[in-house]
Structure prediction request, 614 residues.
Amino acid sequence: MTEQTLDETHALAQQLRVDSIRCSTSAGSGHPTSSMSAADLMAVLMARHFRYDWQQPDDPANDHLIFSKGHASPLLYSMFKAAGVISDEELMTGYRRFGSRLEGHPTPILPWVDVATGSLGQGLPDGVGVALAGKYLDELPYRVWVLCGDSETAEGSIWEALDKAAYYGLSNLTAIVDVNRLGQRGPTELGWDLDAYVKRVEGFGCRAIPIDGHDLGEIDQALTQAAGADQPTVILARTRKGRGFDEVEDREGWHGRPLPAEMAERAIIELGGPRNMVISGLRPEAGSVRVRADGEVTLPRYEAGVKVATRLAFGQALAAVGARPGVVALDGEVDNSTHLEEFAKAHPGRYFEMFIAEQQLIAASVGLSVRGYVPFAATFAAFLTRAYDFIRMSAISQANIRLCGSHAGTEIGADGPSQMALEDLAMMRAVHGSTVLYPSDAASTARLVLQMADRGGVVYMRTTRGAYPVLYGPDEEFPVGGAKVVRSSADDRVTLIGAGVTLHNCLAAADELGRDGIAARVVDLYSIKPIDTATLLEAAGATGDRLVVAEDHYPEGGIGGAVLQAFNDAGHPVPISHLAVRGLPGSGTPAELMEAAGISAAQIAQAARDLLGA
Ligand SMILES: Cc1ncc(C[n+]2csc(CCOP(=O)(O)OP(=O)(O)O)c2C)c(N)n1
Prediction:
């Protein structure tokens, strides 16, 4: 680095500090001191290492920059101003204002932002997904740079990320940790103990480079070393929070507080006054992604009546959908249970084992979605709850991810309640823009897996452990948002609604009722969100509003909740007889456990009789 550029970079860093103060003071909100500590790091990165065409954020050869410490948005947006892609006016009048794209924490509403951050511990795991795409799929030399906070490294997901980054040899990934010693409420666990950080980072298989995070030469050297590494690099930069303004520098009590106007004025003077430098930075190396044509998807066909588990059909169908080269799969070390192994066997080059790290499983899916891939991640449905914050954030990231949760409900039997998903439908329904599917047989599973690939947002499929008869022909359509009336007649007096295993119980209940001369309509609610309100209304109308809903899920937020909401939203509120898992299950056979939960065929039939007063 020449003296001249060193001076320029210093001026850029001061501009980033000044603008971070100005925008947060004007908004009366934000995190200027968290921005000021990292300003030197980002100035050197931006001026000397980040290869990015600011006018073409979709250029596949661009580097990626993720602010894992998303609360440093004043710094990120000040960088956007310095890159000439947002104006000073937008920064000053838009930051954190209603209706503005410069939200409190960055989201991909902004074309230069890959993923939403602000829930700490997510940006680095997301970056692992982008780096996986770069190294194994795009095969492009772009680099992924992630700015982390030091207090943020208390999150286990940061270490899940470094572990997987090392396992996959992601030399294209660099984490830059802003070790400013302070978190939100006070000092961090490790303070400025860079040696402790180095040991941890190295223990996870990454290269650690400790530096003075305010020495531009040291920063430049570390970023150069990182780019030439053969393992992931973590730059551990010792910094001072609020750097550059003596009144707040390295002082407690200034986290997340904008400077009052008169203090901001003094700070701006101390930092050399406002500047409006625009820097062009480095262009990406030319490169494009190899375009591979979609192969033809031939879904598996299942003979009616044969018993096949929906989890197996999921794996087999996904292996078929893998004929499309953009489809990738990620496992949480249970692929012989979820049957994702079917995809692994067919497409090993597009299969990522994330081991027992569910947060990283979701985050890697989000990162792969950033690069346009079509990720399917699978584990036991119960264990997806562990990554719920990541699932929630992926909706804010506008990521397109497909999740499969197997081993739903008490039906799993002997393993007991620790392995049973009984909350997953509620959790997934609540995600903004999500799709929730719950097929009952192999034929509908296969059809729905294909549609999942084409659907945006968070798309969830719940599968069942046990094998149940195939109900439908292989050419039957199952549009998302539909429902199947599996059994009906002009004499129907009650409607039984189920999905997954309870659909089979509803069918058995209808048989039992039929023997007593009671005709029952049976609805397969394979699409829980969106829901087929028309079919529900029609069934209710045909059966005198007598409805039994049976689900292998806790009563809150599952199928019953979805049905009630559908009727309510349609302006036709209908009470339901709601059979759900109300007690805490233990171990047993599936039949014993479903009986104990009150969702067996006999109990569904009895609920119908009760409604009819029969
Ligand atoms: C998962 C999560 N927990 C808590 C918070 C609240 N929070 C926001 S910033 C912060 C402190 C972060 O400190 P550090 O990572 O050191 O960043 P700094 O601001 O000091 O640079 C906390 C606790 C959050 N945003 N996300």
